[in-house]
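input
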Amino acid sequence: GYGQLYPTPPPDGPFLLISIDFCGPLKRTPRENQYVLIITDYFTCHITAIALPNCMVETAAQALMNEYFCIYGIPSTVISDQGSHFQNQLMKYIQKLIGYHHFFNTPYHPQTNGIVECFNSTFIPQISKLQYCEDNNWDEYLEAVVFAYNSGTQKTIKYSPCGLLYGRSHRLPIHTQSSYFSFSEPNDYFTQLQKTVRIYHRAEKHNIIQQ
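output
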C-alpha cells in the first residue's frame, strides 16, 4: 500500500510500524550535516536519529535502507508526512521492492505522526543549545541525546524504549552497581531475556490500546 493514512491497529511487536520525519535545517556542522532523519518505532517509542547533509530523496532513501532497515529489519508499515523527500517515485519503488506499506498523514491531521512530534519537542531544544556553541558540533552529541531519550521512562508507554526492546534497562553512568542477573551460560541469559521481553510486550500492547 502507498497512500493516505487510516487508523491502524497497534503493532504486535517492535519495528513493525515506524514513523519517519526530518528535523532541520539546523546550523551546518564542520562535518557538513544540517538535517536529522528521525525514525520512531511505534511499539517501543525507540528513536533512531541520523545526521545528514541534506534532505534530498536519495539521501533519505539511502539512510533509511542502510542505517535502519539493514539493522532492524523491514517494517510492515511506514508513516511519514507528505514531503517530497518521502513521497516520490524512488521511495515508492523501494517500498514495492522490499515489501512494506507506506502511508502519509495529512496536513490537516499531523497528530497521526504524533510520536515523532513528541520526541521533536524534547530533541530540538537540546540540539539547539549545541548548534550555537563555538564548535557547532551538535552532530557529535546526537547519539548521546538519543541514548538518553531511549533510556528514560516515557509517560505514554510507562516504560523506557530500551526496556521494551531489550528486556532490561541500559546501564548508565549514574549506576554504582549492576542489578542484572548472573548467568553461567549464554543460553540461560537468552531464555530469561525472552521471558522478560514477552512480559513487557504484553503490557505495552495493553498500554497502546488504552491510549
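quick obs: The domain at 2-154 is CATH 3.30.420.10 (Nucleotidyltransferase; domain 5).
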